[in-house]
Design a protein that fits this description.
10% strand; single chain; Rossmann fold; alpha/beta; 5-stranded parallel beta sheet; 143 residues
Amino acid sequence: MTSYRARVVVDTNVVFEGLTKQGGACGLIVEAWLGGLFIPCLSNALAYEYLDVLTRKLSPARWENTRLLYQEMLNEAEFTTIHYRWRPISKDPGDDHIIDTAMNAAAAVVTSNLKDFKLAESQLGLKVLPPLDFVLYLTRNTP
């Protein structure tokens, strides 16, 4: 029997917190990503945003310690081609590429920034979850 794995776009704020803070829902999401418990969907733009934020906000030594983990995360991800864009749909134009990735990948979004995704949620039917809700989903739906 094949088990269903959720398709998810993980916002940069969740990835950053998951890679830099011990414990918590975001850290569990990074562990679940690396453990293959869901299908992380990325676009090139989102992968570059992860890289930009990590290299700007981490010290060179901390980035060096995190780099291999970041590369492993990219290796586990499914890259999504953006065929159609829904713009502008977010209060923050910097989040539009996340919505585009999720809609093109038929995926949900996991973010700590729910307010900027309200319009996409109501008008496009995009599923948006805070990190803790996604962790709870995984605990209930992972064999």
